[in-house]
TrEMBL record:
<dbReference type="InterPro" id="IPR008265">
    <property type="entry name" value="Lipase_GDSL_AS"/>
</dbReference>
<dbReference type="InterPro" id="IPR036514">
    <property type="entry name" value="SGNH_hydro_sf"/>
</dbReference>
<feature type="signal peptide">
    <location>
        <begin position="1"/>
        <end position="23"/>
    </location>
</feature>
<dbReference type="GO" id="GO:0004622">
    <property type="term" value="F:phosphatidylcholine lysophospholipase activity"/>
</dbReference>
<dbReference type="InterPro" id="IPR013830">
    <property type="entry name" value="SGNH_hydro"/>
</dbReference>
<dbReference type="GO" id="GO:0006629">
    <property type="term" value="P:lipid metabolic process"/>
</dbReference>
<dbReference type="InterPro" id="IPR051532">
    <property type="entry name" value="Ester_Hydrolysis_Enzymes"/>
</dbReference>
<dbReference type="Pfam" id="PF13472">
    <property type="entry name" value="Lipase_GDSL_2"/>
</dbReference>
<protein>
    <submittedName>
        <fullName>Arylesterase</fullName>
    </submittedName>
</protein>
<feature type="domain" description="SGNH hydrolase-type esterase">
    <location>
        <begin position="29"/>
        <end position="189"/>
    </location>
</feature>
<keyword id="KW-0732">Signal</keyword>
Length: 210
């Protein structure tokens, strides 16, 4: 009887260790230079700031930053199957399209690439958050307007996708937060960006835990 009692206590103790590990939830960021930390130290980027906060306050949440400066939707689409296989995330935050827009790429092609990424992720039972992206008006008012409309349109086409407002919308208006090119946020902007995005991303992941 004592042996059985000991085995029962050991079983409960093991569950206490197993359950937190099983509750781990991961988010992969699939982005471009805005998320890759272009022009600043990688340790100072907003994804690293978010990860530090989660390690301290939500250790069951994991962030994987697969962003690359200069990335396009076509490039990310090619990389995505390998990223899914390697990391098997619960969520993917897509922050892409800016380089397509700045290079004047076909918006129909950009939307098709993003749509294929969403379909590929959802077919693997991975949930998707999509960031709105804005580009400067230098490409002309019609192209700029159609570019911005692309992201709400994608969210309508894929009703399970969570549309995240463009996190640079207010940051870009503050010169103290921008690098000399006027496009990329500087080191000082990374904590404010994390302040904007961390609560939204955390809320998504905590749905998987609760």
């Amino acid at each position: 009887m004592k042996k059985n009692s000991f085995q029962f206590v050991l079983f409960i103790a093991l569950l206490c260790f197993i359950r937190p590990a099983a509750a781990n939830v991961s988010l992969l960021i699939l982005g471009d230079s805005l998320s890759a930390g272009y022009g600043i130290a990688a340790a100072d980027s907003w994804p690293q700031e978010v990860q530090r906060r989660w390690q301290q306050n939500h250790p069951n949440l994991q962030l994987i930053n697969a962003s690359i400066s200069g990335e396009t939707t076509a490039g990310a689409l090619r990389r995505l199957p390998q990223l899914i296989e390697r990391h098997q995330p619960d969520w993917v935050f897509i922050e892409l399209g800016g380089n397509d827009g700045l290079r004047g790429f076909s918006l129909r092609t950009m939307q098709a690439n993003l749509s294929q990424m969403i379909q590929l992720l959802e077919s693997a039972n991975i949930k998707v958050a999509l960031s709105e992206i804005h580009i400067p008006p230098s490409m002309g008012p019609r192209y700029t307007r159609m570019f911005r409309q692309s992201f709400p349109q994608l969210a309508e086409q894929h009703p399970n996708v969570v549309l995240i407002p463009f996190f640079m919308r207010d940051i870009a208006l503050q010169p103290d937060y921008m690098q000399a090119d006027g496009i990329h946020p500087n080191t000082a902007a990374q904590v404010p960006i994390a302040d904007i995005l961390e609560p939204q991303l955390r809320q998504l992941l905590l749905q998987e835990v609760n």
